[in-house]
Specification:
Number of strands: 9
Low-confidence stretches: 1-12, 21-30
Oligomer: single chain
Distance between the termini: 34 Å
Strand content: 15-25%
Number of helices: 8
């Protein structure tokens, strides 16, 4: 997102989507049932991960410690950054992944490998939000620290809320109609379960004073 306070959410969003894309069903089967994933957190990052799992034919259980999903993502007021998006190209905006990467590193990012994922996949992720969830991200602005207009939003006052709720509603619809998705709120994950090889295969969460 545009504001520095929620920039980490954008990074986690891109990382979660790309992680899910990298973990093919075959690869997932080595550490976990091939068609199942647990997502912790119901903000934009978590909902992006859950929707990506579902897109790829998997099943997901999403846990959130709050009484409702959304997290800090809903508070974002600037928009979401992306380079080489369809919207930019339609508007004749010249931008590149390399330029976005350079801007991000100049802004103080300390992990180039994370920046590479964030910037390299940002355009495709913004397009995914538009195409998959019919979101209006047609307004593109140039914010501080950027060398080109790349902060996407619609006409709503709180784009973070609009974007995140669209993803929440998609998971909720699937949860209502099928057994492929389940959302558990007021659930605090507190212990990871690992197998003999040290790979995480599950977790324990507390809800209403009981462990599950």
């Amino acid at each position: 997102f545009g504001s520095s306070r929620v920039a980490r959410t954008t990074i986690f969003n891109h990382l979660c989507r790309n992680l899910c894309q990298l973990l093919s069903l075959g690869a997932m089967a080595t550490v976990f049932p091939a068609d199942q994933a647990i997502v912790v957190g119901g903000g934009l990052a978590g909902m992006s991960a859950a929707n990506t799992v579902l897109e790829n034919g998997g099943r997901t259980v999403l846990l959130d410690k709050s009484s409702f999903c959304g997290g800090n993502s809903t508070k974002a007021t600037s928009g979401i950054n992306g380079a080489e998006t369809k919207t930019q190209k339609t508007k004749g905006i010249e931008d590149t992944i390399e330029l976005f990467t350079s801007d991000t590193l100049k802004g103080g990012a300390k992990k180039p490998e994370v920046v590479k994922v964030l910037c390299g996949n940002s355009g495709a992720d913004v397009d995914w939000l538009v195409d998959k969830f019919s979101l209006d991200l047609s307004l593109v602005a140039r914010l501080g620290g950027h060398s080109a207009p790349r902060t996407h939003r619609g006409k709503e006052r709180f784009p973070g809320m609009t974007i995140t709720y669209a993803l929440i509603q998609m998971v909720e619809k699937i949860a209502e109609r099928t057994d492929k998705a389940r959302i558990v709120t007021k659930a605090r994950a507190h212990k990871l379960l690992t197998n003999s090889a040290g790979a995480c295969v599950g977790l324990i969460y507390e809800k209403g004073g009981l462990d599950f």
